[in-house]
Specification:
With 103 residues, this protein is mainly α. It has four helices and no strands. It has one domain (3-94).
């Protein structure tokens, strides 16, 4: 297993543990982990480590989800669930999300 893939699995395990410790439902926990895994997979294809992800990376990923779904309008809740999962993952991995803006 490559280094980024191994790191991703560790990060997903941390996310699952955090969600369970915070008493999120099984359904929400599963959905967050699935959505976070898709995000990490997309990062891995580009060789980007989640510890250095920027806001623009997240925006591009979410825009790509919208494009891949075709012309049909995505339900707002579907997109929010992906965004929430990515943001929680990045809070755990980077210690804070969104990152502080530079003055």
């Amino acid at each position: 297993m490559e280094r980024l893939e191994l790191t991703a699995e560790i990060q997903l395990a941390q996310l699952r543990e955090h969600l369970q410790a915070q008493r999120y439902s099984c359904v929400v926990t599963t959905n967050y982990v699935v959505n976070a895994r898709a995000f990490l997979h997309a990062l891995g294809r580009k060789g980007i480590d989640a510890r250095v992800v920027l806001l623009t990376d997240v925006d591009r990923y979410l825009a790509g989800l919208t494009r891949r779904r075709g012309q049909c309008k995505l339900p707002a809740m579907w997109l929010r669930s992906h965004r929430a999962a990515v943001q929680m993952l990045l809070r755990l991995v980077q210690g804070q999300w969104p990152p502080k803006t530079m003055p």
